[in-house]
Task: structure prediction
Amino acid sequence: MIITNEKLTGVILAGGQGSRMGGVDKGLLEWQDRPLIEHLIAALQPQVPTLIINANRNQAHYQRYDLAVISDQHSDYQGPLAGLAAALQAVQTPYILTVPCDSFYVDPDFAARMLQALNQTDAELAVAHDGINLQPVYALVPVNLLPSLEAFLARGERKLRAWYAEQQMITVDCSDIASMFQNINTPAQYQALQAGRL
Result:
């Protein structure tokens, strides 16, 4: 069965603690006079019919964008897998397309590229690869894997890569758009972004 764009919900994962940024909510960091979240919304809305935000704080701010805002069902900031699980529980579509809140650019063909790759194989999910490393937060994941993910989290596991390794996964070559995966993890990286060095 061909997976079409209408079967996707885009998910911006903004539920982290920002520990390496001193606790700052990275989705609200300013770049070019707008929070990063606004750049991502603008990039993703033309690519997916529905878009939601996963956030565990500052929900009132995120709700200003007239998008559904969902929080982790698991407490204590259990990482992006908890945000993934919350999204899989919340959406009405059979697939989600995830990106992190701490990037500032999404290629306009990203969703189409991920869909095409998954449609060409028998894999269950697709994960972006920058030509050197897997980019695990950039993924196309089916809702029917939620039971597997919940069981994984219940075992105390937290690593995206480890869960993906248990599934039928395809990596998607995104080496030609590798700049998309630059993200903001530290104050130094944020300063570099502001100075135009990223």
Observations:
- Residues 8 and 95 are 5 Å apart (CA to CA).
- The two ends are 40 Å apart (CA to CA).
- Residues 80-90 form the longest helix (11 residues).
